[in-house]
Automatic annotation (TrEMBL):
GO terms for molecular function: transferase activity. It holds the Pfam family CoA_trans. PANTHER family: ACETATE COA-TRANSFERASE SUBUNIT ALPHA, KETOACID-COENZYME A TRANSFERASE. Keywords: Transferase. It comes from the Bacteria. The keyword Cell inner membrane does not apply. Signal peptide: none annotated. This is CoA transferase subunit A. It comes from Bacillus norwichensis.
């Protein structure tokens, strides 16, 4: 595990055409510093797996405006009106998954599960083209796991080994995404020495984490602020 000085250094591994998982629900729990790093990086044709694509002009919404995203896989794209407009113009491909299905598909990717059956979306347009199976007289849809080249996630604290703890609901998709990519980068508020995190509060063990950097942006009730 490596501690990076900044987002630019942390994201050196990211390249065009990568599939990237991005934690967060809206802007809450989103790795805003690392997203800014992607904004400044000369890359395109990205596939983004995230609950949503930020908000208009914020978070992943900036990447969308830059036309760096070729495909988005998620569940709540209406939080950013630019997504629908880009889709209508043919600038982005959308794969819509129910939120629980999205979370389970990410978990399955990290757990080495080849797929799972769920009743959610059965009989709807979201099930079109997918394998179905009747189980106990009810229709189930086969959903495949989601994996990524890189996950960028947000945590509250890390120790120097890379063990992570999260802050309340900012945890959201981040722990799942830490298990489901070839390379995982976490931005955190603070890095402490090994032993300063209680083993009972560690959510993501260090074996999943490849890099850590300090967050330079913080979401507050008044909006996103810069951190010195």
């Amino acid at each position: 595990m490596k501690i990076f000085k900044n987002a630019t250094e942390a994201l050196e591994c990211v390249k065009s055409n990568d599939t990237i998982m991005v934690g967060g629900f809206g802007l809450i729990g989103a790795p805003l510093t690392l997203i800014d790093g992607l904004v400044e990086k000369d890359i395109d044709n990205l596939t983004i797996i995230s609950n949503n694509l930020g908000e208009r002009g914020k978070g992943l919404g900036i990447l969308l405006q830059q036309k760096k995203i070729k495909k988005a896989i998620g569940s709540y794209f209406t939080s950013n009106r630019d997504v629908g407009a880009a889709y209508q113009r043919g600038e982005i491909e959308i794969e819509l998954l129910p939120q629980g299905t999205l979370a389970e598909a990410i978990r399955a990717g990290g757990a080495g599960i080849g797929g799972f059956y769920t009743k959610t979306s059965a009989g709807t347009d979201l099930a079109k083209g997918k394998e179905t199976k009747i189980i106990d007289g009810e229709e189930y849809i086969l959903e495949k796991p989601l994996k990524a080249d890189v996950s960028i996630i947000r945590a509250h604290k890390a120790d120097t080994l890379g063990n992570l703890i999260y802050y309340k609901t900012a945890q959201n998709f981040n722990p799942l995404m830490a298990t489901s990519a070839k390379y995982v980068i976490a931005e955190v508020d603070e890095i402490v020495e090994v032993g300063q995190l209680s083993s009972e509060e560690i959510t993501t063990p260090h074996l999943f984490i490849d890099g850590v950097t300090i967050a330079k942006k913080l979401l507050t009730k008044d909006g996103v602020i810069e951190i010195d």
